[in-house]
Amino acid sequence: MSSSVQQSQPAVGEWHVLEERTTNASNSVHGTLDKMSDTIERGSVAEFSHLSYEIKTKKEGALRLLDNVSVRVRQGEMLAILGPSGAGKSTLLDVMSCRKKPLDGAEILLNGRSLNAETMADVASVVEQEDDHYGVLTVRETIAYAARLSTSGFSKAQIDHRVDEIITALGLQSCAGVKIGTPIQRGVSGGQKRRVTVGTGLVTYPRILFLDEPTSGLDSFSAREVMASIQRIARKEGIIVVATIHAPSIDTLQLFDQMMILAKGKVAFQGSLEAAAVRCAEVGRPIPEYTNPSDHLLHLVSTDFGDDKSAVLDALYAAQDREAVATRTAEGKDDGQALERHHMDRKSFGHHLKVIGVLSERNVVNYSRNLLAYGVRMGMYLGMGFLLATIWIRLGLSDSKINDRLSVHFFSVAFLAFMSVAGIPAFLEERSVFLRERKNGLYGPLPFVIANTLITIPFLFACALLFAVMVYWSIGLHPGAGKFFQFLAYLFLALLAAETQSVLVAALVPIFIAALALAAFMNGFWMCVQGYFIRGRSLPRFWYYSFHFMDYQTYAFELLAKNDLKGLLFNCNSAKLPSGDCMCTYPASNATIAQYGQCVVSGQDVLDYLEFGGILMGAYAGILIGIVVIYRVALYVILYFRR
């Protein structure tokens, strides 16, 4: 470990017992970490200088959330950021990690090299407060996929060894094979899930690790053990750790090399526990015996409950400004070493291929286990198939059954497409994981959309196949294997378009109830302008020439109808004229009458009457594919701009 790493020291005499207990506990942290890749630099230092950030409000104009915050953290050191609610802790972490852009004049440097959002993503990992994971993956699988998405040049054995290190260090051995958990399947506890989130950040070999409330949901002992594990890894591998933390115990606090107290966006104190005791005494508010220094400092700077603390705040600000000037004068500028990437080039073609493969594999595992992805929907499709097969059973070739056949095709397209909204919860989970991993620079929206599309296709095709097998011959649609496979293909394209529409809505409106309502409305709207309830040519001209031809259900319904009716002959038994001639439900053409007589109507006659007869099936299928492609491109665009 570098000599530049400062050890925490007791602030008052009574703490030496606690520190000794902390040291002994640190030695008992599970596992021993092996030396990291030689690409990690030694002697690294991160400098965050003059960080200010403000937002625009209607009432108050510009509201400054951060005001000239500066801090310097060396490799292996841990910085704790504390403060009352609204002090700017999470905002500071976002600015330090380049997720928010500070005001002009700010500097973020690693070894003297300036960092921006792109380069920060290459060297840093951020562990957020939300524990977004795939609920059906186990603890080991979750951490392993994070490792595979981020590392380069490591064998499977090396990755597995790294995953085992992290699992052991974070005390997750007992639940390594347990699933994270879903709304319908209980998994690990909240505290274990928090440790899994920390593990996904550590396993990627970060140079800088940002932690937002890493101990939330943990009891005091578990919180100290987790932070002790992070400290061991940080000092072993030279990781710079910056963490916001809420109400740490004295045991946990002593693991940090320095702490920062924020108040109204400004630094009220920065330094060690020992320095905190000195500072409090300087401003006339000494730390009472047996009191946690962080609790005492937070009490001094908190103004949420109406206390007038302007005097003590001014004194703390002034003392901190003097200390900052003295520190800069004494320490000077660190010359550092060159900034080198230890992750693979994330713009390379090989990286994108690798990521697509890993994401596709993870999607297969997720979809095959997650009932909310396709399990529930497959059950719904089978249920609807059973209803159609038993209600429209053996329609036959009577002209009175022609409208029933059209109803089958309408239900097949419209209602099955409507059920695509059942996939929204699974996609929202997918989206949350994507956003977390994207923010950490693991991959972008293009690999995500490609992997999602590739794995959606076989699962959705399986759903369409089960439905088609159940209904096609039970209802008695156009005989022949070729006609069946065309029915299956057209139905699948309709379901794929509906599926893409649902995930597009969920990406645009990532709130389950709102996305569900909007997707349901859109499917209902497409039903109205499709051409079944009211014939297309009877629609008002605006709806006919606009949304009727934008509707994927229009093309799918007409394709299914033409595939079924073309080539069939229907007997006209519905009514007899006084002359004894037949009166068919649909008018027969002169050619049909000349060839078969007046008591037969051909499927082509029906199609011509409905104005479906002249459609080019290949062109309509191509339009359906085009709609799917447009929806998928729109999905990419939405995810690209949803940072």
TrEMBL record:
One Pfam family per UniProt: ABC2_membrane
Domain annotation AAA+ ATPase: ranges: 75-266
GO molecular function list: ABC-type transporter activity; ATP binding; ATP hydrolysis activity
Membrane topology: Multi-pass membrane protein
Segments crossing the lipid bilayer: 371-395, 407-428, 448-473, 480-497, 503-521, 615-641
Leader peptide range in chain numbering: none
Keyword Membrane: yes
GO (cellular component) term, any one: membrane
Main location: membrane
Cellular localization per UniProt: Membrane
Record-linked InterPro entries: AAA+_ATPase, ABC2_TM, ABC_transporter-like_ATP-bd, ABC_transporter-like_CS, P-loop_NTPase, Plant_ABCG
Keyword terms: ATP-binding, Membrane, Nucleotide-binding, Transmembrane, Transmembrane helix, Transport
Family statement: Belongs to the ABC transporter superfamily. ABCG family. Eye pigment precursor importer (TC 3.A.1.204) subfamily.
Protein known as: ABC transporter G family member 12
Provenance organism: Vanrija pseudolonga
Gene that produces this protein: ABCG12
